[in-house]
Write a structure and sequence with these properties.
This protein has 285 residues and is mostly beta strands. The chain has a domain of 195 residues. 12% of the residues lie in helices and 44% in strands.
Length: 285
């Protein structure tokens, strides 16, 4: 099944929608407008770090997604808005009888805005099909930190790359020009994902994207993250500068604990450099 953008909702499954727009006034970022439809739900913002950033949590009260579900998320940040966006828990994708779960995210970032997009892992269960597309448009001066992680199934149930298809597509534009195009598709039943050049002995995948910032900041992030990865055990990965204002980190880990620890450390390096604050453990409900 090829990667695809969301089309009209299937007759099977649910059509979840979540829309949120953020504005800034008096030094505080606030939720200016929102809408949601189950199986997606937008919570009210919290401010555990002060007036900014606004911490937002997207939840799925149904607990997971099934084939035929269509999920649409749209986020807009007005000029100067600062948002940390996360999820309540992992994105669990259940067995499909033929139709995929299609997830599309559209994000518009105004000048001098800042977004930390930190969802919990995607966990594709046996025989599941999950297609995800994320498109982010950034005005000049905006800054983005985006972390993503992929598990290989319900390990406690003995699953190990038993899903049918996992497709991920990310487009980031900066100041009207393409900055990054990152596409991945894994079909374990058609091609061994543990062969050389793919997962090999590391079944957990992490990606972290940095967009915006100065050359000095991005060089500092790249050097510190490369040093962090080189000195770690139980993983393999690296950080590379993009031709525009950005950097990409990708690593493979031997356990979810190693994956999470490395994700937090990378986020901490990038956050301190771009925003001046140390990373903080995220509150989950």
């Amino acid at each position: 099944m090829p990667l695809a953008s969301a089309t009209a909702p299937s007759r099977v499954g649910r059509h979840g929608v979540a829309l949120a727009r953020f504005a800034r006034a008096g030094g505080r970022t606030y939720l200016a407008d929102s809408f949601f439809r189950v199986p997606l739900q937008v919570m009210r913002p919290l401010y555990p770090e002060g007036e900014t950033p606004a911490h937002m949590t997207l939840i799925n009260p149904t607990g997971g997604h099934v084939g035929g579900d269509v999920l649409e998320l749209e986020i807009a940040l007005d000029e100067g808005a600062r948002v940390l966006w996360t999820t309540q828990g992992a994105t669990k994708v259940y067995k499909s009888l033929g139709e995929p779960v299609i997830s599309t995210t559209r994000i518009e970032m105004g000048a001098a805005s800042g977004l930390e997009l930190l969802p919990d892992p995607v966990i594709p269960y046996a025989d599941s099909i999950y297609l995800q597309e994320t498109r982010i448009s950034m005005a000049e001066g905006a800054k983005l930190l985006y972390g993503e992680s992929i598990y290989h199934g319900r390990v406690a149930s003995g699953e190990h790359f038993d899903y049918s298809t996992l497709g991920l597509k990310l487009h980031i534009d900066y100041a009207g020009a393409p900055l990054l195009r990152d596409v991945m598709e894994v079909r374990p039943k058609e091609s061994d994902p543990e062969r050389i050049g793919l997962f090999e002995p590391y079944p957990y995948l992490g990606s972290f994207y940095v967009a915006g910032g100065t050359d000095e900041e991005l060089n500092r992030i790249t050097e510190q993250v490369d040093s962090l990865l080189a000195g770690a055990s139980g993983l393999a990965g690296g950080c590379t500068r993009l031709t525009g204002p950005g950097a990409l980190v990708r690593w493979l880990a031997d356990s979810p604990e190693t994956l999470r620890k490395t994700h937090f450390e990378i986020w901490n390096v990038a956050r301190k450099t771009l925003f001046g604050w140390e990373a903080t453990p995220l509150r989950k409900f």
